[in-house]
Amino acid sequence: MHPKKVYDLSAINEFLIKHPHTELLQSPFWARVQEATGRRTFFIRDTNRGEQLLCSCLLVRYPLPFGKSWLYSSRPIIENEKQWHTLLPHVATIARQ
User: Fold this and answer.
1) Over the range 83-92, which residues count as b (16 or more CB within 10 Å of their CB) and which as e?
2) Looking at residue 66, what DSSP letter applies?
């Protein structure tokens, strides 16, 4: 598996359309809504060697006073604990930025 930051949102849209547990709050549309309010968004995904999308996570950075912030992800499309552990180091990297 190869976790990646996502720049091509069409792959995320296709994945969400086919996934049985799709969430609006994990969609590129919701990322655009969040960006329109001044928040930064990050998509992370995991693919197999054939580049088939296995899981996806939209992170939204909410600013706080004193230069701090917090990350939020509502119901990421992750089907098992292994996928979560694969994405977690990338979430941590974004959190430290």
Assistant:
1) beebbeebbe
2) G
- In angstroms, the CA 14 to CA 84 distance is 21
| Residue 72 · residue 25 · CB < 8 Å | no
Report d(CA 88, CA 97) in Å as an integer.
15
Give the pLDDT confidence score for residue 2 in this predicted structure.
Answer: 42
Q: To which H or E segment does residue 11 belong? A: helix 9-18
Within 10 Å of residue 18's Cβ, how many Cβ atoms? 9
Lookup: tokens for 78: 């992750």
pLDDT digits (tens, 9 = 90+) for 1-36: 444 445 567 777 777 777 677 777 888 888 889 999
Contact residues for 13 (Cβ-Cβ < 8 A; gap 6+)? 27, 28
